[in-house]
Automatic annotation (TrEMBL):
InterPro entries, per the entry: DUF6364 (IPR045944)
Protein name listed in UniProt: Antitoxin
Listed Pfam families: DUF6364 (PF19891)
Biological source species: Verminephrobacter eiseniae (strain EF01-2)
């Protein structure tokens, strides 16, 4: 099977079991510059991981910021912050120049 859109070749499919759970693993061939391959192998070795695990960890991390942002948006606000909601209602325009002048006068 060939995956043309991703620029890779899927060579075989393997089913492994880990703690009684079936895990499908697909071999993937990536075409990268020799320098990148050397760096990636060295990094994997320094961290005691296989190159496959290093790549898998990278793809997992790509989705983590999105998930963290989603959680942050869904999390309730701390009570102090929630109490400030709507504090500026009715203020038409906050004039930055007037605010700076106020601070300048105040701190003379």
């Amino acid at each position: 099977m060939t995956c043309i859109a991703a620029g890779c070749d899927v060579q075989f499919l393997e089913i492994c079991t880990s703690n009684g759970v079936s895990i499908m693993q697909t071999k993937l061939t990536l075409r990268l510059e020799e320098r990148l391959i050397t760096q990636a192998k060295a990094r994997a070795q320094r961290h005691g991981k296989s190159l496959s695990q290093l790549v898998a960890d990278y793809f997992v991390q790509l989705d983590e910021p999105v998930a963290a942002q989603r959680q942050a948006l869904e999390a309730p606000l701390p009570p102090v912050v929630a109490s400030l909601r709507g504090a500026l209602k009715g203020v038409a325009d906050l004039d930055e120049g007037a605010w700076r002048e106020h601070l300048r006068t105040k701190h003379q």
